[in-house]
Amino acid sequence: MLENARGRCLRCHVLQARDLAPRDITGTSDPFARVFWGSQSLETSTIKKTRFPHWDEVLELQEMPGAPAPLRVELWDWDMVGKNDFLGMVEFPPLVLQQNPPRGWFRLLPFPRAEEDSGGQLGALRLKVRLIEDRILPSHNYRPLTELLMEAVRGPAEEDAASPLAVLEELTSGDCRQDLATNLVKLFLGQGLAGPFLDYLTRREVTRTTDPNTLFRSNSLASKSMEQFMKLVGMPYLHEVLKPVINRVFEERRYIELDPCKIDLGRTRRISFKGAPSEEHVREASLGLLTGYLGPIVDAIVGSVGRCPPAMRLAFKQLHQRVQKRFPQAEHEDAKYLAISGFLFLRFFAPAILTPKLFDLRDQHADPQTGRSLLLLAKAVQSIGNLGQQLGQGKELWMAPLHPFLLQSISRVRDFLDQLVDVDGEEAGGPARALVAPSVIVREGYLLKRKEEPASLAPRFAFKKRYFWLSGETLSYSRSPEWQMCFSIPVSHIRAVERVDEGAFQLPHVMQVMAQDGAGALRTTYLQCKNVNELNQWLSALRKASAPNPDKLAACHPGAFRSSRWTCCLQAERSAAGCSRTHSAVTLGDWSDPLDPDAEIQMVYRQLLLGRDQLRMKFQEDFNIDTSPEVDTMRASGAKEGACPEALARQREAAGRLLEVLADLDRAHEELQQREQQKAALGPLGH
């Protein structure tokens, strides 16, 4: 706001815009800005064919008589024929203009007339959002903590009281424990040590348990870790086993009810009866429908031994052996079966049947009628997983007509579990080797591929539609799925898979695959996806398949080399070093869980900080290996009774190493924060 001879004047410096919507057939826009203040308006020049315009123009508007007016800046796409297209707007109240003139980036908003046009009846949207913000250090800072975690799973789990895993197990609970279990499973999975990690937790839990009926029934770290492991590793297996029957239930939408208190005779018109429908008719028809669905489910499960991921079978084999060794008595014969079926049936198959959408078995949640059918099926699968131990007990006696079928299935399930744990070999390799078989197609579909030398073409026309297949061995493509001629990139040659800035080609959802050719030269293939979800899925699949590759690139260019320079950093050499670090985050299957070791170990570090004072008090302040209160406290929290002085000394040494590693990470975070503050203080010119 300025004062001049004619009164007050508003000076608006329109600098630039970014990420504008593409309104033209070229995938770009011809944007200009229109500034309104009171009854006056001015426009900037129009910049052709861009979604990232730079105007750097100053517009001055004179204040008119009347009440103070807000400032509104609208962005439009200029069209030679027809009406201009609205791109968005931002508005500032008079008080803001006078006291705190805006300066910076502002999110563009739609016209505020939509709700008025609909009479205010636009409905409501319910959201639940969680924001986790943290600083991730360079990988080398986390190496000592990672090594401590890896050492812990190779040691005697039963006597461990001071390793990071033992401390974490003692401190965490509830939702925090589930998040921690997910981070730990992904961390050890990435190191190829998920099996030893799960075995470590199993040994600790089995040692503490005296009644086999309570084994793994609580939400312990061992239970949560095995549950998350199955979800991360076994989702394709789950889909293969359950999806055909789940789809049938949704498509047929049959009315099924066994509980007399819930039978609604008015909804039985879907069931054909010779006479008037009765409760008995409904129960008989429902029993037939339920067994008609349960039969294929049980058949698919007991016939799936060869399709179960080897990593899952090895984990179940270790579990089977630990439980059998802990409870060898004849009266506990079922304990080794229940330990496995408790995870596979009660925590994996049954929840997926109950809520298929949460396991990506369906795109939508079930309607109430289908949901009730799924609930009854899930209850039946739970009973099978319990090996019939609770049949006829509790309040749900109305399930009794289903008991003969369930009892027949239980013997088949026992045989299935015996076959499941009859597996040889050790878990090896990283997450890709555990999850992507060489010959299996893990993703396929149409993408837009950029031509190798499209210098004479506009960016949009340089991309051609091609059909892609990704397996553990190759990324292949051709003009169509049926096309005979096929080109391929060996997955073992891939050195990085990264997003590309939208400004590079004026196109959204572009990624780049950097791979070495036969001569060792680095070649970049640019691919455009339909939307951001497809982009994330392809990024994930490619990174997962190429995860074990050596010589990964540490940095790359998020832009493209066009007009003799990189669009991202403006360097003029095509061979210039990358200006942005590469990433390794993937999603495992369709579970949408990122696999990012640095982020996972950072979360583990944060959890350990919560228990640092407790650990220091137990193992470093007035530590006495005789009969001091500290030793009693330590024993109460998990140290083995009667531990010898040498064992206690080892625990004290382990605690000291852990505290030292945490202190080093504290210092690294402080130094990073100081550097960021110094960089912010210098401003743009100091970069």
UniProtKB/TrEMBL annotation:
Protein name (database record): RasGAP-activating-like protein 1 isoform X4
Keywords: GTPase activation, Metal-binding, Repeat, Zinc, Zinc-finger
Domain PH: 440-547
Organism: Acinonyx jubatus (Cheetah)
Domain Ras-GAP positions: 176-386
InterPro entries: C2_dom, C2_domain_sf, PH-like_dom_sf, PH_domain, Ras_GTPase, RASAL_RasGAP, RasGAP_CS, RasGAP_dom
Keyword Kinase: no
Tagged with keyword Zinc: yes
Annotated C2 domain residues: 1-106
